Amino acid sequence: MAWIYLLIAGVLEIQWAVTMKYTDGFTKLTPSVICVLGMAASVYFLALAQKTLPLGTSYAIWTGIGAVGTAIMGMILFSEPRDLARIACIGLIIAGILGLKMTSGH
Question: How many domains, the chain?
Answer without folding.
Answer: 1
